[in-house]
Amino acid sequence: MRKGVFLFFFLSAFLVSCKEGPERRLPYYNNASFTPQFLEKAPEDFHKVRSFALTTHTNQAFTEKDMDGKISVVNFFFTSCPGICPRMAINMKALQDSFLTDDRIQLLSHSVMPETDDVPTLQKYAGAKKVDSKRWLLLTGNRSEIYNLGRKFYFVEEDLGEKRDTATFLHTENFVLVDKQRHIRGIYNGLNVASIGELIRDIRELEKE
């Protein structure tokens, strides 16, 4: 059985199983150690994704305000990547299909090579990967802004204490779950089917808040 077909049936079964069971609250995270903090509500000064300005593959402006009121799944990729990115795209497509009619959810893939991944390049990639722009957006823009977001606000790299700048390539398989107030609520291995199943379960829980 092809991997994509297997993933579809696995996640479909997982979604059914997740509709029942006790409700639980997801933790909050405020630094790269991903130490969970179980809070009834995050205080006003709690870590959240800061302001930014990027461009989508549909050539529309996209800022932090477009995240407000939506649950977001965030990852980082580049269109010419021959390694982990194609596998992450398969799993993002599975997430897209799982929440295709749910306007509360959006998937955000940031290019870490924006100097080559311009809007036309992203549009071509979106067509090849069957990206549905009403649920999944590919983002490009200023390299420094994207790298700063990934490392300092989404915490997608786990090399604690090691200083990095835009000259150090950002390459990670992590998917990050962000709530409607732009707080970090989970991190997942974007290459692992079981981890994607956990992400789907946690999205369902977050929708209850």
UniProtKB/TrEMBL annotation:
Record-annotated Thioredoxin domain positions: 43-208
Organism of derivation: Sediminibacterium roseum
Coiled-coil region(s): none
PANTHER family: ELECTRON TRANSPORT PROTIN SCO1/SENC FAMILY MEMBER (PTHR12151), LINALOOL DEHYDRATASE_ISOMERASE DOMAIN-CONTAINING PROTEIN (PTHR12151:SF25)
Keywords: Copper
Keyword Cell division in annotation: no
Protein family according to the UniProt entry: Belongs to the SCO1/2 family.
Source domain of life: Bacteria
This protein's name: SCO family protein
InterPro entries the UniProt entry points to: SCO1/SenC, Thioredoxin-like_sf, Thioredoxin_domain
Alphabetical list of SUPFAM superfamilies matching this protein: Thioredoxin-like
